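Justification of resources, computational component.

The compute hours requested in this renewal are based largely on the per-chain cost of generating structure records like the one below. Each record pairs the submitted sequence with a full structure-token output. That output is archived, and it is also reused by downstream analysis tasks.
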Amino acid sequence: MRRERAYLLTGIIAVSALAWIYLVRMPMSAADFGSVAARIAAPLPSPVVDFSICFLMWAVMMVAMMLPSASPMVLTYARLAGGRNGASILWTWMFAAGYLAVWTAFSVAATLAQFALVRAAVLSNALTVAPIMGAAILAAAGLYQFTSWKSVCLRHCQSPVAFFMTRWRDGAAGAFHMGIKHGASCVGCCWMLMALLFVAGVMNLVWVASITIFVLLEKLIPYPRAVSFTAGCALITSGVIVLLQR
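The structure output for this chain reads:
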């Protein structure tokens, strides 16, 4: 089991690293995919190609941002599943797959939101919203940090053993189902933080890395609500500053 957990942790690190490499070297058009991919995409309507590239960006970004913070939950599942007859490492990867499936669905919603903002001429070429909307998003994200929904979702994300005690299902299908449940809790916890990407720039990797680190700290440190409340105050203050400076 110790060796299996080492393999799992190595796999999580490798997948996360590959996602970050993709973000750094991200293609911006069909031609940037390479000659073979460009030829495949060439017959497709331009909106389809643009949507696919944008969706791929969001999907990979969610892997890069959220998989590291899910590693404690994945490793806890591996430890608990290891003591059950018929359990295998496949179950653990199915749990991770269910988790990422939810964030992939979130990526579809984020892509649709980005296209809607572009069509409404709200999003600039730098993929940032106007200052007044940015201030509103900052304030809304800050206020969300104080809500009971945020608190409930964060509690699920920070208590792996309690989560599995109340939701355990055997088998690969059960693992995938639990991964979906955990992913839904994480979306409920972090979706407003993802909206902040429209403030500083969707492809601003410094901002992406900052949110990634915050999400990880929020789930790992002993006093998550203190972190959430502090972040909420900081976000609301930032929104007021942006509004006053416009």
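The chain has a mean pLDDT of 83. The chain has one domain: 2-245.
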